[in-house]
Automatic annotation (TrEMBL):
The keyword Transport applies. Belongs to the ABC transporter superfamily. InterPro entries: AAA+_ATPase (IPR003593), ABC_transporter-like_ATP-bd (IPR003439), ABC_transporter-like_CS (IPR017871), P-loop_NTPase (IPR027417). It comes from Propionicimonas paludicola. It comes from the Bacteria. GO terms for molecular function: ATP binding; ATP hydrolysis activity. This is ABC-2 type transport system ATP-binding protein. Keywords: ATP-binding, Nucleotide-binding, Transport. SUPFAM superfamilies: P-loop containing nucleoside triphosphate hydrolases. Residues 5-230 form the ABC transporter domain. Gene3D superfamilies: P-loop containing nucleotide triphosphate hydrolases (3.40.50.300).
Amino acid sequence: MNDVITTEALAKHYGRVHAVDGLDLQVRRGEIYGFLGRNGAGKTTTIRMLLGLIKPTSGTVRVFGEPIGTDQEWLRRVGFLVESATAYPNLAVRENLELHRRLTGAAHSATETVIERLGLTEYADRRAGRLSLGNKQRLSLARALLHSPELLILDEPANALDPAGIVEVRGLLRELANSGVTVFMSSHILAEVAHLADRIGIVHDGRLVEEASRNELAARARAYVRDSFTADEREQALLTADLERYFLARTGDTDPKEL
Ligand SMILES: Nc1ncnc2c1ncn2[C@@H]1O[C@H](COP(=O)(O)OP(=O)(O)OP(=O)(O)O)[C@@H](O)[C@H]1O
């Protein structure tokens, strides 16, 4: 059993709104799966069902090969970040993490390790409520990672991060995947998953409309753009990417080649 997440005909209906509408997903061990869709496509609703926070209208969810049920043991093996960053605003970064460490029974050293890993060292004693949005997001990611989960379920992990932060988080997720952690991440921005995900599933109106490896999807996209856009339009798109690289080169020490 190599699938870490499997859903079959998964659906969630809110009256007439079919937020998720017959979703078959297989996320393999050790891969980074990019779950890509526009606003309202059904990403968060899917993630809520994967975590057992809401009940499907129909269909099944299996995590680590087992249906998610009343036994919450499997949740210990999962790290998650759902919607916007959350933390106790009046507790310091370190205190927030320490609390989570105790709750999850993670090793003593885990708090300092994630503080360093997420670049939060200089903010460790600052109250979470006073952090910038980007650092709040780092704190949420730190909390998701603290107990060394085997599976990370991340809803829009790059939210609020600046381009340099996105590159850093991307490096971190790649490192984790290389060490065997499975990552399921949602996004509405292709660029965010295009350089990172091993496989990409495109969700629209609660259904999977396309699923492919990154290379396959890139090849399909190139063929589509070549056939459907003028040379000028293609040049405009390249200009945006070049400007982003130039911006990174001028404003920090992130290597624009990592983009
Ligand atoms: N509790 C709810 N009651 C009614 N409709 C809901 C509820 N939750 C989600 N929806 C609807 O289901 C659809 C999918 O929402 P969902 O939040 O899963 O999308 P999303 O892909 O995560 O979008 P976003 O990127 O904007 O967060 C939307 O039309 C949304 O309005």
